[in-house]
Write a structure and sequence with these properties.
Blueprint: E1 32-36, E2 49-51, E3 54-58, E4 63-74, E5 77-88, E6 103-116, E7 119-129, E8 134-146, E9 149-159, E10 164-168, E11 175-177
Antiparallel strand pairs: 1-10, 2-4, 3-4, 4-5, 5-6, 6-7, 7-8, 8-9, 9-10, 9-11
Amino acid sequence: MFATLSAPLRAASISVLAASLALISVPAGAQQTSSRMKGMQLSNDQPIQIQSDKLEIRDQENKAEFSGNVKVVQGTTTLQAGKMIVYYAAGGQGSVASGDADIEKIDVSEKVYLKSGTQEATADTGTFNLVNETLLLKGEKVVLSEGKNVFVGCQLTVTMRTGEAKLDACGGRVMIQLDPKSRKTTN
């Protein structure tokens, strides 16, 4: 039995805010699953709005720390977390304050929530590595959902360049719940 998760789910970043989940094929009862995901792309063509209770820019450490009710919105994609740390390249020409820093990695923690269109993901922590174009969501329970279709594991790894994705159960089992009414029909 195979399941399909079809609409895009985008992950947030500051200058690059998108990693869309388009397809996950899961063998029933598997402890880990790997699949190709269509539509994985990075995009920086829409404005980004970031809100938080506090922002500390630490140029000497090449990072910016957003804390307290962090909310990032770009287009139809929203990221929420308790904390977000943005790491940017040392010696780069841009700066975080001007919005043109060469961002290498973004770490989010404290109840991570991603939403894009009809899809949602929750995790304890997340890392967006913009150098090698990977997204990693981790937690005791990482949940991906679209409508009534739900995928649960403890770690989701997505290679944005190739669209490869893997959902791990970390010693347990990957769990899926599928709504047969969500299956696309062809005439």
